[in-house]
Amino acid sequence: MQRGGKQEMTLSQQLLFLKSNPVVGGSGEVSRHKLTWTTQVQPTPLARDYTVRLILKESETPDVFVDNPSLTELAGDREIPHVYLNPLRLCLYLPGTGEWHGSKRLDQTIIPWTFLWLFYFEDWLATDDWKGGGKHPGEVAEPKGNRENRRRVARL
C-alpha cells in the first residue's frame, strides 16, 4: 500500500531491518499479519532496564508496550504523561502528521523514540516535570525543538 507517495514496507522487511541493526538488539517474528519485536531498553547508563514490546499489524501504526517494570507501579498515584490507555502504550508521535508511516524503518524511528521517551520518563519520575514535549490530538502544538531532538536521535 502506498501512503504519501512512498511504498510501505512489508512486515518482513521491517523485521529484517530490526534484526540487522547492530544497535537495536532484541528478537521478533512475523506471524498472522503481525510483527512482534521484544528488546531491552536502558535509556541511560544509570537508568533501569525496560523490557519493551513493539507490535506492528499490517497497514497499521506501531504500538509500543513496556512489559517490565510496570510503568504504573513506578508512577505510583501519578498519571503517566504521553501514553495511550486500554491497554497502556507509549505515545511516541502524533498520528496523521507524517512523523511515522509504513515506509519508515522501525529501527530508525520507533525504537530510538522509545529510548527517548523512557529517558524523559525516568526524568519525570525524579522531577514530576515532563520535559519530553509532544502533544495529543486536540492539544496545542509543541515547540519544534522536541521534534528536532527526536529526528536527531533517529539519525544516530
Describe the structure.
The chain is an alpha+beta fold and 156 residues long. The protein has one domain. The chain has 4 helices and 8 strands. Strands 3-4-5-6 form a 4-stranded antiparallel β-sheet, covered by helices on one side. Strand 7 and strand 8 form a beta hairpin. The two termini are 28 Å apart. The model has no long low-confidence stretch (mean pLDDT 88).
What is the topological layout?
Layout: E1 2-3, E2 6-7, H1 11-20, E3 27-31, E4 34-41, E5 50-57, E6 63-68, H2 71-75, E7 83-84, E8 89-90, H3 110-127, H4 144-155
Antiparallel strand pairs: 1-2, 3-4, 4-5, 5-6, 7-8
Concise structural overview:
The chain has 156 residues and is an alpha+beta fold. It has four helices and eight strands; from the N terminus they run ββαββββαββαα. Residues 134-156 are annotated as: Disordered.
Key terms for this structure?
single chain, 156 residues, alpha+beta, 4-stranded antiparallel sheet, two-stranded antiparallel ribbon, 4 helices, 8 strands, 22% strand
